[in-house]
């Protein structure tokens, strides 16, 4: 072009441009970019039409983008694989630890039974309680693994009916009040409404609340406080579980609900748990059509906020108190089994 038209005689900024695809005489698809540029020759205004073959350029761009996407995907898969490896290593440790405790206690009790050593009654009771607590701990880990598998396979179902969510949460909270107070930690329940009927699965709500309080209890020191609050927002209900514990670093907040991640091993060093509890809580909340958020200031505590839709089924209103059953204590013991007295 420069041979016939000096570059200074036309404006390189096109008035109009578009792309066009066509098949050439060899049957190959090509892409051209057509530009209309203003030009001037011998004091006359012209429109210069530039046709550029951009096929190779576009292919190179597409290839570059594809490589970049695949590179991101590869890095993501590597991160997930690493988290899975750490997760299963942690699960192996969590399974092995209670088994070792149970085995050791059983061996000592067997030696006492056969007269190989003399053990005081109080000492025996400590070992029996240790066996029971660690058995509950194994049940909790296995239950969580089974539920996670069901959730991933889409087989986990809710049994929703109409319940007073205030009574459900209040009864669960009060049922563990003495347990929390034994740790010299205050447990406070508060609500701005006495009755709010919504469709929910009370057993799953129980599991959500117990898990969040258990988690708060692990990281709250004696003299601290755990607050459970319900607020009615008309078409939805908000449940807050707040503690005065160690909190979570801000840059780790997005990771706590990840199934194969741990927030910080330094925080978990003296705290037992498989690390899948919050992931399970998030899934249970979402099955109810709700969402869970978290706020935290490191060193000042943590607050989990659950939002549930206030919808009803066509069924009658049920009373949660009649559904507690005799095994509530056992369910509490299972959920709190990784917190040692």
TrEMBL record:
Keyword list, A-Z: ATP-binding, Kinase, Nucleotide-binding, Phosphoprotein, Transferase, Two-component regulatory system
Catalytic reactions of this protein: ATP + protein L-histidine = ADP + protein N-phospho-L-histidine
Gene Ontology MF: a single term: phosphorelay sensor kinase activity
Occurrences of domain Histidine kinase (ranges): 90-312
Chain segments annotated as coiled-coil in the UniProt record: none
Gene3D superfamilies: 1.10.287.130, Histidine kinase-like ATPase, C-terminal domain
InterPro entries from the UniProt entry: HATPase_C_sf, HATPase_dom, His_kinase_dom, HisK_dim/P_dom, HisK_dim/P_sf, Sensor_HK_Regulatory, Sig_transdc_His_kin-like_C
PROSITE patterns to which the protein is assigned, alphabetical: HIS_KIN (PS50109)
Listed EC numbers: 2.7.13.3
UniProt protein name: histidine kinase
């Amino acid at each position: 072009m420069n041979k016939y038209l000096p570059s200074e005689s036309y404006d390189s900024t096109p008035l109009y441009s578009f792309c066009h695809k066509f098949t050439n005489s060899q049957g190959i698809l090509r892409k051209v970019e057509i530009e209309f540029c203003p030009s001037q020759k011998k004091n006359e205004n012209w429109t210069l039409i530039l046709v550029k073959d951009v096929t190779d350029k576009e292919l190179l761009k597409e290839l570059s983008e594809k490589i970049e996407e695949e590179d991101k995907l590869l890095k993501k898969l590597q991160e997930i694989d690493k988290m899975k490896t750490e997760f299963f290593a942690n699960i192996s440790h969590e399974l092995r630890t209670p088994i070792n405790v149970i085995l050791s206690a059983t061996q000592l009790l067997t030696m006492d039974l056969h007269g190989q050593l003399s053990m005081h009654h109080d000492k025996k009771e400590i070992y029996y309680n240790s066996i029971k607590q660690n058995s509950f701990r194994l049940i909790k880990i296995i239950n969580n693994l089974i539920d996670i598998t069901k959730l991933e396979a889409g087989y986990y179902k809710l049994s929703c009916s109409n319940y007073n969510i205030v009574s459900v949460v209040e009864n669960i909270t009060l049922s563990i009040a003495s347990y929390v107070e034994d740790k010299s930690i205050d447990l406070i329940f508060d609500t701005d409404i006495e009755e709010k009927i919504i469709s929910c699965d009370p057993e799953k709500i129980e599991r959500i609340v117990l898990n969040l309080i258990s988690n708060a209890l692990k990281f709250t020191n004696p003299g601290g406080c755990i607050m459970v609050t319900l607020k009615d927002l008309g078409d939805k209900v908000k449940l807050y579980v707040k503690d005065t514990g160690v909190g979570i670093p801000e840059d780790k907040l997005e990771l706590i609900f990840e199934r194969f991640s741990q927030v910080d091993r330094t925080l978990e060093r003296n705290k037992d748990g498989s690390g899948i509890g919050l992931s399970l809580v998030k899934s249970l909340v979402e099955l109810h059509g709700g969402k869970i958020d978290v706020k935290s200031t490191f060193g000042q505590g943590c607050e989990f906020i659950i939002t549930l839709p206030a919808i009803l089924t066509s069924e009658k209103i049920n009373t949660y108190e009649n559904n507690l059953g005799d095994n509530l204590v056992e369910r509490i013991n299972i959920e709190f089994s990784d917190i040692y007295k």
